Amino acid sequence: MNGLDWIFSALNMISPSSLTDVNVERVEEVKKEKNKKGEEKKEKKEKKDKNKKNKEKKKTNWVKKQKDTKNKQKKCSSSVLLLI
User: How confident is the model over 27-41, as pLDDT tens digits?
Assistant: First the structure.
């Protein structure tokens, strides 16, 4: 009986309000962690999208340059033919 009395007295010392305060603090911490992870995911996605756009832009620029060089070659070859 002595052990049980000690347990009950210890349980009575712990107030329910202190337990809820701890739970509320933990819930707030978890929310902050989730928000932080969400922001990191958004930033990572934005960076990935930006890189993808830059790659596409470089590719289109490369294609344009190739077309320009082909057109220049055609013009040069046609002018050489006219001279001959």
Answer: 889 999 999 998 999
CA distance 45 to 51: 10
Low-confidence ranges of the chain (pLDDT < 50): none
DSSP string, 33-77: HHHHHHHHHHHHHHHHHHHHHHHHHHHHHHHHHHHHHHHHHHHHH
The 3-class secondary structure across 20-39, one letter per residue, is: HHHHHHHHHHHHHHHHHHHH
- Tokens 């999208």, located at residue: 49
Between CA 11 and CA 18, with CA 16 as vertex, the angle to 5 degrees is: 100
Cα–Cα distance, 56 to 42 (Å, whole number): 21
> Which residue, 28, 33, 53, is CA-closest to 41?
33
Q: Return the structure tokens found at 56.
A: 């596409």
* Count of alpha carbons within 13 angstroms of residue 22, beta-carbon side: 6
